[in-house]
TrEMBL record, chains A, B:
Pfam assignment, any one: LacI
Domain HTH lacI-type: 2-50
Keywords: DNA-binding, Transcription, Transcription regulation
Protein name, UniProt field: LacI family transcriptional regulator
Species for this entry: Candidatus Fusicatenibacter merdavium
Gene Ontology molecular functions: DNA-binding transcription factor activity; transcription cis-regulatory region binding
C-alpha cells in the first residue's frame, strides 16, 4: 500500500511536507498542497489509514437541492442519515456543492484532503463534473437517485421508480382512464430519464397504448405546462402523471385556467409527496418517496461500502398516496 | 390490532383454544389448528406481539438449491446470513421446501405457526405455490434472486445481473468478438428471465447486433449444449455466455468434442463463479456472485423489513473473474 514516504519520493519532497499537505497545515503553498493531494489520490493513498485519534466523520454533499427547512425536499433525507450516523459515532458535515468547486479538484482528492472516508451525495445532474470522477473513484460514495455502473465504490439509493410509475398507471387505469399523459422537466438527470422511460413501460405493462406524443418535456415548469397541457388535452388525455409534485401543482393550475375541473374533468398524479401535496387545490394524489427512510438507507448503504460490501443498488418500495386529484374517467370538456 | 380474543370470537372458540393452536399444543385437532392459524393470518394477527421470552428466530427456506457442503451454491449464502443473524441474537433454522409443503399451508400461516417473524427464501421458481402467496403476504420475506413487485413486506436480494452481463459482453467485445451467443436453461425462474433479457440489452448497449437466434434455450443442460452449440457455431458465433457455470462447463466439453480449442477457437463465459470454475479445463472466466456477501445482504435486508423499512431491492455490484476460457477473437474452425 502507498505510504507517505512513497508519495514524497515520487514528488521529491520530504515525508513531513507530504504529511503537512494531507493535514492542511498552513505553512505550505496551495499549489504544492494540491499537487501532493492529487498525487496521493493517483497513487491510491487511502485516508482510512490516517490518524485514528480524530473524530470519525462523513459528509453529505448537496447540489441542486434545497434542504435547510422542513418544507425542502432534502431536509428529511439529511435527518434520516444523521439519525443513524450520529449514534454510530460519526460527525456528519453537510456541504453544498457547485460546479466551480467540482472543477477545482477531483472527488477523491476532495475527500482525502477533508479526511472523509465516505460521502452521501444528493442532487447531482448528469453533467456535474464529479459524475465523471465517480465512474472511477475509490472513495465510498452513496448517491441518492443516481446510478454509477461498474464502480464497486458507489451505490445508488432511491425509491423503485418503475414500481411507483406502475402504481400510478394501474390506479388511473382502474379509474377508467385509457389515455394518460406525462409531463417532465428536461431529461438531464438520471432520475428524470428513469421516470420518463418507466412511464412508457408502465403503459405497456398495463395494456395501454404507448405513444411518444403522450409525453411533454420542457426545462422550465411554467413553460412545460403552458406548452404541453393544451396539447395533451387536445389529444384526448384524461389523466396526467407529472415527474414531480411542483409540476403536478402547476398542471392543476393550468388545467383550471383551461376551464377543466379536477378531478371531474381531468386527473393529476404527482411524484415525491412533498409536504405541500396535502394543501394543494385539490389535495394531490402522488407517488410517495419517504425521505426520512431514504436518508437512513443512504447511511446503511454507505456503512456497507465502508465495510467493503459492494452494494450497488438499494431501492425502497414505492407507494401511492391517494388524495383528491384523481377521479373516475369522464369526458374531457373544454369550454 | 387483532387479538387472540378477536380470533376466538370470529370462530366461536375460546381464547385458550386459539392460543393452543398458535403455540402448537398437542391437545388440539390438526383441522382446527389449521383453521385457527389461517383465520389468524387472514385477520392480520402478528407473531411479533407474541411471547417475548422465547428465543428470537428466523428461517431460511430453501427450494431447488443444494447447500449442505461447501461445493454447493447455497452453502456460503447460508453462512453469510448466519454470520450476521446469530451474533444479533437470532436462532437460524434452515428448512428445505417442496411444493407439497407449500400447497398444504399458506406462507403467512406457516410463518405464524412456526413463530418465525421473517424468512430468507432461496431458490424459488416462478411456479412455486408460495410465489403467489408472496404477492400479498404480510410476513417480512427476503428473496434471493426473486422480485415481488408492490409488496412492501418483500425484498429482492441478488447481484446486479444487468451489470454482470454487460461486463461479460464488454470484455468479449474488447477481445474482438462481434458475434456472441447465449445458452440458458428454461426461463422458468425470475433470474433466468433477467439474464436472458439483459444478454440482449448488453449486446445493444455495446453496439453489437442483437438477434433472437443468438440465444439457445433448453430445460436440461446436456440437451441444451448438444442442440444449440452446433447451431451457434454454424451461425459464426466466436464466444458464448452461459446462464450458469455448469452450462458453461458443459459447453466447453461440447465445443472440444466438435474439435474446437478453448480459448483459441471459441471463448466461453460462465455465471456465478462456483468453486469448480478454478478447476475446469481450461479454468473458467465467469461473472462472480459473492455468496457470502449475498447472505449478509439477505440478513441486512430482512432486518430492515423487520424494522418497518420497506426495502424492495438490494443488489451487489457484479464483477468478472478473468481466467483462461476467453481469448482474442480468431476464426472459428470446424474440422
Amino acid at each position: 500500500m502507498t505510504t507517505i514516504a512513497d508519495i514524497g519520493k515520487r514528488l521529491g519532497v520530504s515525508k513531513s511536507t507530504v504529511s503537512k499537505a494531507l493535514n492542511n497545515a498552513p505553512d505550505i503553498s496551495e499549489t504544492l498542497r494540491k499537487t501532493i493531494v492529487e498525487t496521493a489520490v493517483e497513487m491510491g493513498y487511502s485516508k482510512l489509514r490516517q490518524n485514528k485519534k480524530e473524530q470519525k466523520k462523513l459528509c453529505i454533499l448537496v447540489e441542486n437541492m434545497d434542504y435547510t427547512n422542513e418544507l425542502h425536499f432534502g431536509y428529511q433525507i439529511i435527518i434520516g442519515f444523521r439519525q443513524l450516523a450520529e449514534p454510530a459515532g460519526y460527525q456528519v458535515d453537510v456541504i453544498p456543492l457547485d460546479t466551480a468547486m467540482q472543477r477545482s479538484m477531483g472527488f477523491d482528492a476532495f475527500m482525502l484532503q477533508r479526511h472523509y472516508p465516505g460521502a452521501f451525495i444528493l442532487g447531482m445532474a448528469l453533467n456535474d463534473p464529479w459524475m465523471n470522477d465517480l465512474q472511477t473513484s475509490h472513495t465510498p460514495a452513496v448517491l441518492y437517485d443516481n446510478y454509477i455502473p461498474e464502480n464497486p465504490a458507489t451505490c445508488y439509493v432511491g425509491i423503485d421508480n418503475s414500481e411507483g410509475m406502475n402504481l400510478a398507471v394501474k390506479y388511473l387505469k382502474n379509474l377508467g382512464h385509457r389515455k394518460i399523459g406525462y409531463l417532465s422537466t428536461s431529461l438531464g438527470s438520471y432520475i428524470t430519464q428513469v421516470r420518463h422511460r418507466t412511464f412508457f413501460s408502465a403503459l405497456r405493462k398495463n395494456g395501454l397504448k404507448s405513444d411518444p406524443r403522450l409525453a411533454g418535456i420542457s426545462f422550465h415548469v411554467s413553460e412545460c405546462v403552458q406548452k404541453h397541457v393544451p396539447k395533451l388535452i387536445e389529444q384526448g388525455v384524461t389523466a396526467i402523471i407529472c415527474c414531480h409534485d411542483q409540476m403536478a401543482n402547476a398542471t392543476m393550475v393550468q388545467c383550471r385556467e383551461a376551464g377543466l375541473k379536477i378531478p371531474e374533468d381531468i386527473s393529476i398524479v404527482g411524484f415525491d409527496d412533498l409536504p405541500i401535496c396535502a394543501y394543494t387545490e385539490p389535495p394531490m394524489t402522488t407517488v410517495r418517496q419517504d425521505q426520512l427512510l431514504l436518508g437512513k438507507c443512504g447511511y446503511q448503504a454507505l456503512e456497507s461500502l465502508l465495510e467493503g460490501v459492494p452494494v450497488g443498488t438499494l431501492l425502497l418500495h414505492a407507494s401511492l398516496v391517494e388524495r383528491q386529484s384523481c377521479g373516475d374517467c369522464g369526458r374531457v370538456k373544454i369550454d
